[in-house]
Amino acid sequence: NAGVTQTPKFQVLKTGQSMTLQCAQDMNHEYMSWYRQDPGMGLRLIHYSVGAGITDQGEVPNGYNVSRSTTEDFPLRLLSAAPSQTSVYFCASSYEQANYGYTFGSGTRLTVV
Amino acid sequence: AQSVTQPDIHITVSEGASLELRCNYSYGATPYLFWYVQSPGQGLQLLLKYFSGDTLVQGIKGFEAEFKRSQSSFNLRKPSVHWSDAAEYFCAVGASNDYKLSFGAGTTVTVRA
């Protein structure tokens, strides 16, 4: 049971480049989400999905796109990378509601130069 | 909307001493409350959670937390810390009718020999 798998672990982008951060879970969780972690700011929700075909914006969605074509996968796309998107990105998944808590991936450290 | 405040950015404690991390939440109804721990370079691991019942909750690694509705608090405690407890700790709050969790900014714990 792999849990939540994120790839890549590290990435350096040039300003204006696009890329996709991958997230996959094998626990049949309906809920998946993307957070970014910045020093002194905790985790901020970017986008989330409550099931295949359903996505919604979180607290800081600008500059990011998501889709959920399957229960297992929830990729995060950076359309045109900016230095402000330098951060550590975490994918998390959960059973039906928040009371179960989240299972987190190990994170992707992204640097935009 | 729910929110979380962790008043202490950084705490230093001696090995073998007790530890208490503070968490205050804002939410109108009975919240779901969580503590997560993040070791350097790792994802977040669930330590414990509360959503009903006994207000003193036991978690992994010898941690416990107490829910105090009158103080809107969910403080984390450990009677005797080990050097391996050095990490960043996050408090989070969720709602019974929602998937999303709101995280505090985190408290970094340093353990000195």
How would you summarize the topology of this molecule?
The complex is a heterodimer of chains A (113) and B (113).
Chain A: E1 4-7, E2 10-13, E3 19-25, E4 31-38, E5 42-51, E6 54-57, E7 64-66, E8 76-78, E9 87-94, E10 103-104, E11 108-112
Parallel strand pairs in A: 2-11
Antiparallel strand pairs in A: 1-3, 3-8, 4-5, 4-9, 5-6, 7-8, 9-10, 9-11
Chain B: E1 3-5, E2 10-14, E3 19-21, E4 24-26, E5 32-38, E6 44-50, E7 56-58, E8 64-68, E9 73-78, E10 87-94, E11 101-103, E12 107-112
Parallel strand pairs in B: 2-12
Antiparallel strand pairs in B: 1-4, 3-9, 5-6, 5-10, 7-8, 8-9, 10-11, 10-12
Quick rundown:
The complex is a heterodimer of chains A (113) and B (113). Chain A is mainly beta and 113 residues long.
Helical percent range of chain B?
A: under 10%
End-to-end gap of chain A = 36 Å
Structural class of chain A: mainly beta
**Strand residue content of chain A:** over 45%
- Beta-strand residue percentage of chain B: over 45%
In quaternary terms, these chains amount to: heterodimer
Mean pLDDT of chain B: 92
Q: What is the overall pLDDT average of chain A?
A: 93
Task: Report, as a whole number of angstroms, the end-to-end distance of chain B.
Answer: 41 Å
Tally the beta strands of chain B: 12
Helical content band of chain A = under 10%
Q: Name the shape of chain A in a single word.
A: globular
